[in-house]
Amino acid sequence: MSLDRLEGVLRRFQVKVELFHTGPLCGTESFDARPGRGFLHVLRGGEMDARQALPGHPRTLQLAEPTLLFYPAGAPHRFAPRAGAAAPLLTCAAVHFEGGPHHPLVAGLPPLVVLPVHAVAGLQASLDLLFDEADHVRCGHRLLADRLFEVVLIQLLRWLFDHAAQAHVTPGLIHALSDRRLARAIVAIHGQPGRAWTLDELAAEAGMSRAGLTSAFRHHMARSVGDYLSDYRVLVAKRELSLGRPVALVSDELGYASPAAFARMFKARAGQTPREWAARV
């Protein structure tokens, strides 16, 4: 059976993509940082320079073919047409990760992914549908364009799983899910965060030894299995509490013996009790 490394985390922690521009780039355009917002741009045709100050990337990227540019954390950047060339054609969207920088997928993503469209099988077909909706004003075209942009984002994330080293992915969830054996253990945690997982059970899910699982977690996630399980439970708890669900119910669903035990774990990880956190939110 094939393993779906995205469904569990994206169903629980959603990502919303919103189209905000489609058309020619007639002059220099700046994109500023804002907490919880990323950017996904598609250079559809023409030539342009993308300027940013990011480690591991040149300050100016000279682009002359259809390309995806993904700034997961919304790092400041500027686009400018190439001198003497026709105005480049762009379609752009804002990416809103539920929970902002605390979204499980955000940690460990590189600050910028630059990917020629031809590098991803099937991507051009999705983009053709996206451009057809983005470029024509008709009933629901913005809503449909947003959904199609989400399809493009998922295709990009799939590519990152299989090309983590090429994309300079740092330790974190994307890096860990790129290891198919380790991914089986992580998907099991995402599917049942309230289960009283033991190291032996998770090692069995991954088809690894206890020592192998422990070492792989340290390498790919830069943390222990137990720390990731506790941190993921806190993320799940925060989402449920933000929806107004009672502390006792959230505690029970996450497998804690009592609300008091849950509160102790939550405060140790989040610095506040669940009730204090919920009241602040």
In short:
With 281 residues, this protein is of the alpha+beta class. It has eleven helices and nine strands.
Explain how this protein is built.
- The protein has 281 residues and is of the alpha+beta class.
- The protein has 11 helices and 9 strands.
- The strands form 2 sheets. The chain has a 5-stranded antiparallel beta sheet. The protein has a 4-stranded antiparallel beta sheet with strand order 2-7-4-5, with no helix packed on it.
- A hairpin with an 8-residue loop joins β4 and β5.
- α5 (180-191) crosses α6 (199-206), α6 (199-206) crosses α7 (210-221) and α9 (247-253) crosses α10 (259-270).
- It is globular and about 65 Å long.
- The protein starts with 6 loop residues before the first helix and ends with a helix.
- The mean pLDDT is 93.
Provide the fold topology.
Blueprint: H1 7-12, E1 15-24, E2 29-31, E3 37-45, E4 48-51, E5 60-63, E6 67-71, E7 77-81, E8 89-97, E9 113-116, H2 123-134, H3 141-162, H4 173-177, H5 180-191, H6 199-206, H7 210-221, H8 225-242, H9 247-253, H10 259-270, H11 274-280
Antiparallel strand pairs: 1-8, 2-7, 3-6, 3-8, 4-5, 4-7, 6-9
